[in-house]
Write a structure and sequence with these properties.
With 607 residues, the protein is α+β, with helices and mostly antiparallel strands. It is built from 12 helices and 27 strands. It folds into 2 domains: 252 residues, no CATH class; 308 residues, 3-Layer(aba) Sandwich (Rossmann fold). Strands 3, 6, 7, 11, 13, 24 and 26 form a 7-stranded antiparallel beta sheet that branches. Strands 1, 2, 10, 12, 25 and 27 form a 6-stranded mixed beta sheet that branches. It has a 6-stranded mixed beta sheet with strand order 20-19-14-21-22-23, sandwiched between helices.
């Protein structure tokens, strides 16, 4: 059989037409093509100048094909696996060879070409950098001897300048030469993956194993009407069971259920999940005197996520009180109404006295016996004690509607103790540093919401307890309000705090606060032909929070990265049919202005 060189090319795409503030750039071409408002008007010396929307691009390509000795022409001057990059200082020096490693001045992808590319990162470029750069070389991929076992990757950096913009990624199979007499195509033998490369390191990061504790507020205010626990008279469904009305503890159970389903079904990693339910203190009810030990119940960590949320017997009215049967069958993270009632009104471990089971969490609980405290500090501390260091990646999801409350009063000392415990948990004073996500409630005192938002942040970030307490004391004395204080100034993070009344709280928690567990978002995966079809000429809109299809408007200034990986697997049937095939495909990035454009239209259709 005669053999031609196989070709895998990424060519310059014809620039899309610019209309108003619409611009397009082609991967492997200049990628600095800009489109801007065309009008400029003057009125008696005062000018009204149109702004610009510019999209610039950069990349780093690596390729593991033939050896350096066999085909040195496939690689840059640095040798295998470095192919080409933009910018590359060697491109700008007369009679110099490009080494294939992204560099600009003292910034470089790696300092030493012998370093494995997975330990490098695309350089972060600014809009000023692009003003002094020439047009980029084209194409990016131009490989002429692709064989089974070969693989390669390029990460493209995108920089919007001057104004925010929406972004799309497009592809098109521009040309294909098939070996005469064969039906299979090279595009069907080559596999590809396209993903949002958040850290611009040319490596698609997968999910991570983790230890997760759920620290859940079971104080009376999360369920009982007289304490504000009723959210609405609307029914709520949780994992196939429906309650007639909705309370805060129901919202907590719903968020927990959906979070566990996400962890169980969406990822291929292992999660060791436990829980601490905290209420008030012994003797702190309306009819009690003083306060004693914190009321806590612990669910030991387990990797059996399905067991935690399996459906149980909710028809408690049919269970005779003298049988000793537990009406709270099912997973330990289900039926939280009944578990709350048992902790508030009875011993935290009902197994010691089956006759004391709560059959109806409202009717069988005397309101005067309801715990009025909130052992927030003890709940966080217990979660840190119980959390196992199975995977070295700790997360605490705190769900609470209020403030620390002990001895029948709300004092600033209680707030300070919570901040100190949270600080110790986030650094290493209580064990491995723990990231804390908080599902809180905005229908509370300003100082309570502020406390929740300060407690929330990633592992390793310290809390400035003194400054946080100054703000809390100021709000408690009504000198200031929540709007006067930024929790991020003292170690908090609003991106790790979520309102419990938000219908999408579980998914937002999962994809934002626990994003480091999930891995980077994959835009397309399969054969090269399938991936190109998925992206197609209409384009796929990009999002900064892709799992929620949220945050569509990209701010100018920073480099956003998209990774493109391909590989030619060995052992495929009829692979010889691909000999002599070649293909050319285009990748394009397209932008539209965000301002006054709530419904972007996306890339225009080709003529």
């Amino acid at each position: 059989m005669s053999k031609k060189n196989n070709g895998l090319k990424l060519s310059r795409r014809k620039a899309l037409a610019g209309i108003g503030a619409i611009g397009a750039a082609s991967a492997g071409a200049g990628m600095g093509t800009s489109a801007f408002f065309s009008d400029q008007e003057s009125f008696e010396g005062n000018s009204l100048a149109a702004g610009e929307l510019q999209l610039h691009g950069s990349w780093q390509q690596i390729y593991y094909g033939a050896s350096q000795e066999t085909r040195p022409q496939d690689y840059g001057a640095a040798g295998r696996p470095w192919v080409n990059a933009f910018p590359d200082d060697g491109q700008f020096v007369a009679d110099a060879d490009s080494d294939g490693i992204q560099s600009l001045g003292d910034r470089t992808y790696v300092d030493d070409p012998d370093v494995d590319p997975k330990y490098g990162d695309n350089i972060q470029l600014t809009c000023d950098d692009f003003e002094d750069l020439p047009d980029a070389p084209s194409p990016v991929f131009d490989l002429e001897d692709v064989k089974p076992g070969d693989k390669g990757e390029a990460t493209f950096g995108l920089n919007l300048c001057d104004n925010p913009g929406y972004l799309w990624l497009q592809s098109e199979l521009a040309d294909y030469e098939n070996n005469p007499g064969t039906e299979d195509h090279l595009k069907d033998f080559i596999k590809a993956k396209v993903w949002v490369d958040e850290d611009c390191d040319n490596v698609p990061d997968g999910c991570k194993d983790a230890d997760i504790m759920l620290t859940v507020d079971f104080s009376g205010s999360t369920f009982y009407d007289s304490y504000g626990g009723l959210v609405s008279d609307d029914p709520i469904e949780i994992g196939g069971h429906e309650y007639d009305e909705t309370t805060l503890v129901d919202l907590a159970e719903q968020a927990i259920y959906e979070l566990i389903v996400h962890l169980r079904d969406d990822l291929e990693c292992e999660y060791n999940v436990g829980a601490v339910f905290f209420s008030g203190y012994d003797g702190d009810s309306i009819s009690g005197e003083g306060s004693g030990d914190a009321k806590l119940r612990v669910v030991d960590p387990t990797t059996d996520l399905s067991g935690l949320i399996e459906d149980g017997d909710y028809n408690t009215a049919d269970v005779p009180a003298d049988t000793g049967d537990d009406p709270n069958e099912g997973g330990e993270l289900r039926n939280l109404r009944y578990q709350l009632a048992e902790i508030i009104a009875h011993d935290p471990d009902p197994d010691d006295d089956p006759d004391e089971y709560v059959w109806d969490p409202r009717e069988d609980v005397d309101e005067e016996d309801i715990s009025t405290g909130t052992a927030l500090k003890e709940g966080i501390e217990e979660a840190e004690d119980v959390m196992e260091d199975e995977f070295g990646n700790q997360h605490n999801v705190l769900i609470t509607d209020g403030s620390p409350w002990e001895d029948g009063n709300l004092g600033s000392d209680d707030y300070e103790e919570v901040l100190e415990i949270a600080h110790d948990a986030r650094v290493d004073d209580l064990g491995p540093p723990t990231s804390i996500c908080v599902i809180g409630d905005t229908d509370e005192r300003d100082e309570s919401v502020y406390l929740q938002q300060v407690v929330a942040n990633t592992a390793g970030v310290e809390i400035d307890v003194d400054d946080a307490m100054d703000a809390i004391n100021s709000m408690m004395s009504s000198d200031t309000t929540l709007d006067d204080h930024d929790p991020m100034d003292v170690g908090g993070n609003l991106a790790h705090w979520f309102p419990i009344r938000d219908d999408n709280v579980a998914t937002e928690l999962y994809v934002i606060c626990l994003s480091d567990l999930l891995g980077e978002y994959v835009l397309g995966y399969g054969t090269l032909g399938d991936v190109l079809d998925d992206l197609n000429s209409d384009g796929m809109q990009l999002f900064q929070t892709p799992r929620l299809e949220a945050d569509a408007c990209f701010e100018p200034g920073r480099t956003h990265c998209i990774g493109f990986k391909w590989w030619f697997p060995t052992g495929q049937d009829d692979v010889n049919d691909a000999q002599g095939d070649s293909l050319t495909f285009d990748l394009s990035f397209y932008t539209e202005q965000c301002r006054h454009n709530e419904n972007p239209t996306g890339p225009p259709a080709d003529d």
